[in-house]
Specification:
47% of the residues lie in helices and 12% in strands. The chain is of the alpha/beta class and 247 residues long. The strands form two sheets. The chain has a six-stranded parallel beta sheet with strand order 4-3-2-5-6-7, sandwiched between helices. It has a two-stranded parallel sheet with strand order 1-8.
């Protein structure tokens, strides 16, 4: 891995949230056990609980990505599979369980240590491009947006709590966009919203399938944030920290 410099022709930057700006995994792992340990008959320890919740999370989120379930439906499916004897839970009961989990999860949201400085640097570049353009000098304005598989209100709340919400950046969330990463449609729609061609945008994401493969499918440059050097990789610019992205 080596530092990555923003291509000079870039007119838009799309930034993923979970795993890039906010440490979703740590919050989810801890919250799943704190919640589950209060369920009748729960016997698994912290790591076993976290592993089970993550596996169920991935399985049903994949169903959402495939269009088999809507956003709320995949949350209910996760609860029904996870809670002992939960297969017969009503929608209201499943929603109550998810609310109990999220109340704990919400209190554990934290931005990664490298996120604040990265966001400040990126916003400074965007603002400088805007000032230069207003002064009549030849420049390429820069649009910045969050591109996330999730629900906009929930992700807005998460960013605000983690101190990672930059005023003026658009929130492009799958639940409102009508498509989920890696569906090329969401990347195309994002570019249309920002008024750029795919090859003029840059995707910054941590998930090979959703972020990297999805961006490549529409010809969009991508930076793979591979924290810890773990997990699958692709032959694309790869960094271990947001600090390695030079703007």
């Amino acid at each position: 891995m080596s530092p990555f410099r923003l291509p000079p022709l870039t007119r838009a930057v799309l930034v993923d949230i979970d795993g890039v700006l906010v440490d979703h995994r740590s919050a989810s792992d801890r919250a799943s056990y704190l919640w589950a340990s209060g369920l009748p008959g729960w016997e698994l320890g912290p790591q076993e609980t976290a592993d089970l919740w993550e596996a169920i999370d991935r399985r049903h989120f994949a169903r959402y990505q495939a269009g088999e379930l809507d956003f709320r439906g995949q949350l209910r499916a996760r609860v029904r599979e996870f809670v002992p004897g939960g297969s017969d839970l009503s929608d209201a009961e499943a929603d109550a369980h998810m609310a109990a989990y999220r109340a704990i999860y919400r209190g554990l949201w934290r931005a990664y240590d490298d996120a604040p400085s990265f966001l400040a640097r990126l916003e400074a570049l965007r603002a400088e491009r805007e000032r230069t353009a207003r002064a009549g000098e030849p420049t390429r304005p820069l649009a910045v947006a969050y591109l996330t598989n999730g629900d906009a209100p929930s992700q807005e709340e998460k960013l605000a709590a983690a101190g990672a919400r930059v005023a003026g950046w658009q929130m492009l969330a799958s639940a409102q966009m009508g498509a989920t990463k890696p569906d090329p449609a969401i990347f195309t729609a994002a570019c249309e919203r920002l008024g750029v061609a795919p090859d003029e945008a840059l995707m910054i994401g941590d998930d090979v399938g959703s972020d990297v493969d999805g961006a490549l499918a529409v010809g969009m440059p991508v930076v793979h944030l591979r924290r810890g050097g773990e997990g699958p990789s692709r032959a694309v610019p790869t960094v271990a920290s947001l600090d390695e992205i030079e703007l």
